[in-house]
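Title: Comparing notes on inverse folding

I've been comparing how different people in this forum approach sequence design from structure. To keep things fair, I'm posting one structure and asking everyone to reply with a full sequence. Here's the target:
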């Protein structure tokens, strides 16, 4: 099973945000391998990947990943669960987010000088 979330930006257009963790909630059915791929700033390739083999029911099925690259304009997530048949029911995803004031600094080449 694969689930992909569209990019989420919680601090407005081009606003800076810090995403500390992502957490997944579900119901365990059978042993599975859980993979969460994180995409930052509208990227098409994952900036980091978290994988865990889950062999038994933890009740509740809650797993979280601490993100290495926390500063971004937007974040997206792809969840992959592999197992023998139905192995988990996904109920929700939570992001631990903090908004920063202002936007990201740009290099001098992208700054328009005052006339």
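Reply #1:
Here's my take.
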């Amino acid at each position: 099973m694969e689930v992909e979330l569209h990019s989420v930006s919680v601090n407005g257009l081009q606003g800076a945000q810090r995403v500390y963790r992502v957490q997944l909630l579900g119901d365990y059915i059978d042993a599975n391998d859980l993979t969460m791929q994180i995409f930052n700033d509208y990227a098409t390739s994952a900036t980091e990947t978290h994988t865990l083999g889950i062999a038994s029911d933890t009740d509740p099925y809650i797993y979280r990943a601490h993100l290495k690259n926390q500063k971004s304009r937007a974040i997206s997530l792809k969840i992959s669960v592999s197992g023998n048949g139905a192995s988990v029911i996904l109920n929700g995803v939570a992001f631990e987010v903090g908004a920063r004031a202002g936007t990201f600094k740009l290099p001098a080449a992208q700054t328009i000088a005052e006339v």
